[in-house]
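Look over what follows to help learners.
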Amino acid sequence: MRALCCLIAIFLVSPCFAAEEEAGKDRTSYILNKVDDLWRGESSYAVVTMQVKTEHYTRTMRMEGWSKGKEKTLFRVLEPLREKGTMTLKSDNHIYTYLPKTDRTIRLTSGMMMGSWMGSHLTNDDLVKEARLEEDYEAIISFEGERDGQNIIEFTLTPKPDAPVVWGKLMLSILADGYTPLMEHYYDEDMVLARTFTFTDMKMLGGRDRPAVLRVVPSDKPDEYTEFIYETLELNIPVSDVMFTKSSLKRR
């Protein structure tokens, strides 16, 4: 009789668990899409200042950028004057660099993909393999509650088997109110922390408050960083596909 009662209980309770699990997945996907769309939308235009500090040099570069989906991105340097007009084009899985001084367009080879992008702590490969969290990772909410006086939701994300990502794990912390990202930890395939993104300085961008400063700190060089400071951001604007072609670089 006891076993029968247990069996009945399982049949009664299991649909509830399944429904709760499905609702949990829907909520996780909804929040991650909100985070992904924070700076990109369907298309975007932004003016950003990039500051890089390393052991050997510091540099500041102001640039404007356009994006369409996650497959098309174009950056053009505005300052400093000696690099003005230099462009980086990402189109699907290819990256091109246009150098105005020599009027040359270079397609980056596979051997150049792990090189630094514009002298920063990001690689060319980061641009190509820009991930969309909900599409490329399995995600669970690993913490939800108050931390350091803020209501936090923390996600643990592991790559899906066929996802084109190089990380072993991501840990993403966001504000529960508004889903604003606070911190993102990237772990390599040996589950060693490789780099940390922090998001600060809330500012009205693209019609709502967003973090205006994104800082990347490599774990093996904690005194170095690359910082992106948003000046302006427009989302879901008309952007032509022609802008993201190799032939368009010389015309800009």
The radius of gyration is 21 Å. The chain has one domain: 22-250.
